[in-house]
Amino acid sequence: MEKLNKFINYIEGTFNNDKQIEKEKSLNEEIKVPRAKHIIGICNSKIENLPEDFKGYFTIDETYYNHGEKETALRHLFLYTLNEENNVVLTSYELPSNIEYNDFVNSNDKLVMDYNDLKLSEKFTPITFEEREEYFLAESETIFAPEVIFTAVEKVYDGKMYVTEIFRKNGVIVSGSEEPIIYNKIK
Question: pLDDT band at residue 176, thresholds of 50, 70 and 90?
Answer without folding.
Answer: confident
